[in-house]
Amino acid sequence: MIISVLSSIAIWSTVFVIALRIITNSGIALPNNKVISALTCNKSLGSAHQTTHKEIISVFLLAFAFRIAVFLFSICAMYMFNDNINGFGDILEQYMKWDANNYFRIANVGYSGFDIDGDFTTIVFFPLYPWIMKIVNLIFRDLRVSGLLTSFALYSGACCFLYKLFSIDYSKSVAVRAIIYMSVFPHALFFGTLMNESMLLFTSAATLYYIRKHKWYLVGILGAAAALSRMVGILLAIPAAVEWLEHYKIFEKLKNKDIKSVWKLFYSKGLWIFLMLLGTGIYLLCNYKVTGNCFKFLEYQEKYWNNGSCYFGSGIAKMFTNAFTSDQSRFDIWIPETLSIIFVICTLLYGIRRNRSMYSAFLAVYIIINTGFDWPISVARYMACAIPAFLFLSDFSERHKWTEPIITASMAIGFGVYLVGYLCWKQIL
Fold first, then answer.
1. 373 vs 371: CA distance, rounded Å
2. Is this prediction's pTM over 0.90?
3. pLDDT one-digit tens code per residue, 305-364
4. CB under 8 Å to 380, separation ≥6 — which residues?
5. What is the Cα–Cα distance from 253 to 258, expressed in whole angstroms?
6. Cα separations (Å) of 24 from 21, 51, 360?
7. Which of 52, 166, 188, 342 is deepest in the core (most CB within 10 A)?
8. Which residue, 213, 127, 200, 125, is CA-closest to 169?
């Protein structure tokens, strides 16, 4: 109960502050109050960095090389801890665990090609990643290889977009460090597996970049791709709407009764944001085509994964309770989930006054949605895609240099531990 109350106070307080900032930055002058001014003011973000094509290529190659290095390390770990590894095929089979099997099935036989007692359970998983796997497989002719290479490439592409995005408002060191923190986050291991984390990361990074650049048609297209990657992809409409409101001073125009300008900005720019619904619509259409019910995935989520919805404070409280009381999977699931949610909430509280509203708004709603489950067993994995958290952490360590090696080392150790645990079939979900 205490955890639920404290997390609720922390999150709803940030939502309130974000709302005040959006109102202020969109052109409505709030009362001249010192508290309000302190909450809504923007701090200096530091000097921006102009990226070059050579830098972007270097980022992609380094990121891809990092994933290859992690894969080679994984092979060494498999041979050390698994006596049943006799060849490359056995190595690939170690990645066929948990949700990876379902993405493989979708790419291999489609949603209707696999069922459990007549229930097409793979419909719970979004289609964009396995569709891309299937296309890549036209070249490599092995879905496991194609899936891994797809994940490597998408992760590397995401790093490029994040480097360009962060460099718009921050120094090169902040941009690079944010990508490093994201890459060695303990559950960033999923960016190199047969899972769709890299797909969500890539589409989210690209969408956020074009939101910041105000290229709204690309925001709509890539946002639709994000919504087709995972349900939370549609949440990118939040930072898009926030940036649209603030950049064009929509509330100021409404206050001045400049309805014509607002309407023009809406149909020429803001309307593109609604294109994101196309991704969700395609997924619901897949549900209908396979099961005859657009929302069948909700039934399967609860029936097979015990994943009904709940208030986010209750979900967070359950993580804390299990971290201290559960004898099963305490170190595999509940402790890392508890630490990850503490991490993202702390970065949100730190970064809310120092960074653009679009980032804080996205992180706040991302936390709320991803913790609102009765059985929140994959929250640590979901937080690997909480992009603003790593930016805020990098901004913090830029101003407190002594923390940088501590943060990097502790995350890297956690990454190594949970990677080996994952390869050894521990409950790393």
1. 6
2. yes
3. 877 888 999 999 999 988 888 777 888 889 999 999 999 999 999 998 889 999 999 999
4. 186, 187, 333, 336, 337, 339, 340
5. 5
6. 5, 31, 15
7. 166
8. 213
